[in-house]
């Protein structure tokens, strides 16, 4: 809605849960992400209010001008930063809150001359799901300077519209929307309830993306890579926009995996630039790449699971590495992720007990545990039976739709590429001979691209598969 800015108070300090509430997982997303998505539905811009180092990976952070003064400090910082008349302040710990209610609240504020519009629910005013006009800032600042951190004092000092509960209920909303999560028990309760809060939603919505002016999330700029005399990539350029899925196609040995490994920083290009997560990572060292690898994870061809750890512990690994989670939370997250990829019943088995396809599902769950913005899949359906290939394809599509992950899928599987790709990159003899949509591909004059389009998926392994036939193919001697 125009003229509305939202500020999500992530806080971070002194949580009674012994960990950072904002980073608690609920339905595959952190509370912070859920709240950001809910707020995005009604606000032109959404900011996070809290310590920058902790939250900058999730969006644009506004830090307190008066730190350690509780939520009033956050409200003050929000109103110091805003450029709009209406400012929604929303706490991170109301996971039941819906875009529908927020929209209604904004409409109440648009119709009200008061400086603050605050709902009265659950036995009190809800200052952390309320709308503030910029004029409130001065009074907030005076209070902070006095050492008076009670938000309620704003309501008595300034023209405030308190929306009584009956009005909220009459508009069709439940006061449960305001329920906080403060303790593990409350958290568990909310988890057990079928929450009416938003579906798992885009990690990087268009609004968030617009903060980056629709820049690519990943980009190759004229990348050259050779191993000795083996020239693998000879000036390859392509880009992947946030939320987009790009499939990389091409025959075995053409440099598909090498491309992914360069994105992860396992290999470096000889020349050209590589951008990942909006950063030029070409000259990054290990420490900087470690930071990037928290945002971009790779699902390896062989799954790369730890053989001695159970399925559950494999998925827990990135969670334990990240730290700050209690055991109970870790188990909830593991179960959620294994559920999502459809292998929950194998939680306590070892990887060696699973088929290749199942292992790959577990590897995908493990990649998601790191809560990446982007996932790189290397040949996700190779070497599995057709049914499992189909299931894995559906899974990747589900993740693409539900989490709007930015993805690169390296594949030989034309059916998979058709299902998933927003755009396709076709590598051939060290060059990107095609980069575009399927539609554009039909118009592409490159004979090899045309032949590729003519192939049906059954034939495909035959021409591009890892086990190429010993005889000459239509594309020349392997
Ligand atoms: N670490 C490496 N050292 C030397 N050569 C490599 C290395 N990694 C890949 N190559 C070579 O680079 C080429 C591209 O490999 P790769 O990207 O794995 O192909 P694919 O497209 O099948 O994934 C191959 O010729 C391979 O032998
Ligand atoms: Mg490969």
Q: So how many helices?
A: 19
The tally of domains stands at: 2
- CATH architectural label of the largest domain: Alpha-Beta Complex
Radius of gyration, taken over Cα atoms and rounded to an integer in Å: 25 Å
Which small-molecule species are bound to the chains here?
A: adenosine-5'-diphosphate, magnesium ion
Shape label = elongated
Biggest sheet, open or closed, and with what strands and sense?
8 strands, mixed
Identify the CATH homologous superfamily of the largest domain: Spore Coat Polysaccharide Biosynthesis Protein SpsA, Chain A
User: Looking at CATH, which topology of the largest domain would you report?
Assistant: Spore Coat Polysaccharide Biosynthesis Protein SpsA, Chain A
Q: Mean pLDDT, nearest integer?
A: 83
Q: Count the strands? A: 20
CATH class of the largest domain: Alpha Beta
Indicate the percent of residues in helices. 25-40%
Q: Find the structural class using helix and strand composition.
A: alpha/beta
Estimate what percentage of residues fall within beta strands: 15-25%
**Uncertain residue ranges:** 194-204, 456-478
How far is it from the N-terminal to the C-terminal residue, by CA? 57 Å
Oligomer: single chain
């Amino acid at each position: 809605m125009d003229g509305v800015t939202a500020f999500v108070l992530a806080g971070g300090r002194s949580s009674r849960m012994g960990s950072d509430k904002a980073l608690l997982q609920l339905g595959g997303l952190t509370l912070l992400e859920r709240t950001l998505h809910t707020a995005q539905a009604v606000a032109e811009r959404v900011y996070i209010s809290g310590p920058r180092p902790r939250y900058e990976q999730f969006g644009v952070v506004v830090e307190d001008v008066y730190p350690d003064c509780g939520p009033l400090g956050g409200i003050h910082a929000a109103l110091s930063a805003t450029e709009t008349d209406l400012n929604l302040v929303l706490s991170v710990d109301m996971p039941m809150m819906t875009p529908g209610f927020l929209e209604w609240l904004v409409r109440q504020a648009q119709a009200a001359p008061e400086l603050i519009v605050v709902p009265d629910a659950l036995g009190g005013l809800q200052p952390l799901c309320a709308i503030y006009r910029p004029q409130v800032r001065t009074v907030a600042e005076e209070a902070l300077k006095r050492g008076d951190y009670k938000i309620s004092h704003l309501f008595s000092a300034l023209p405030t519209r308190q929306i009584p509960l009956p009005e909220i209920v009459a508009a069709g909303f439940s006061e449960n929307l305001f329920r906080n999560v403060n303790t593990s028990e409350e958290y568990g309760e909310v988890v057990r309830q079928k929450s009416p809060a938003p579906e798992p939603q885009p990690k990087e919505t268009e609004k968030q993306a617009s903060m980056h002016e629709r820049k690519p999330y990943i980009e190759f700029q004229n990348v050259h890579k050779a191993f000795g005399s083996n020239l693998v990539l000879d000036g390859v350029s392509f880009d992947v926009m946030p939320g987009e899925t790009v499939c990389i196609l091409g025959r075995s040995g053409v440099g598909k995996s090498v491309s992914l490994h360069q994105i992860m920083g396992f290999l470096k290009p000889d020349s050209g630039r590589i951008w990942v997560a909006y950063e030029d990572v070409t000259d990054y060292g290990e420490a900087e790449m470690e930071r990037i690898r928290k945002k971009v994870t790779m699902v390896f061809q062989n799954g790369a699971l730890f053989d001695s750890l159970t399925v559950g512990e494999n998925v827990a690994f990135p969670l334990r590495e990240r730290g700050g989670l209690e055991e109970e939370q870790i188990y909830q997250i593991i179960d959620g992720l294994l559920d999502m990829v459809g292998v929950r019943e194998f939680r306590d088995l070892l990887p060696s007990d699973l088929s290749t396809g199942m292992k790959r599902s577990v590897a995908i769950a493990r990649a998601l545990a790191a809560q990446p913005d982007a996932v790189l899949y290397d040949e996700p359906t190779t070497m599995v039976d057709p049914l499992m290939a189909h299931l894995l394809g559906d899974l990747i599509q589900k993740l693409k739709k539900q989490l709007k992950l930015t993805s690169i899928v390296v594949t030989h599987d034309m059916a998979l590429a058709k299902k998933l790709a927003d755009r396709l990159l076709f590598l051939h003899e060290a060059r990107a001979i095609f980069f575009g949509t399927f539609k554009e591909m039909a118009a592409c004059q490159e004979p090899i691209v045309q032949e590729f389009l003519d192939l049906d998926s059954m034939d495909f392994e035959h021409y591009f598969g890892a086990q190429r036939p010993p005889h000459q193919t239509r594309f020349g001697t392997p």
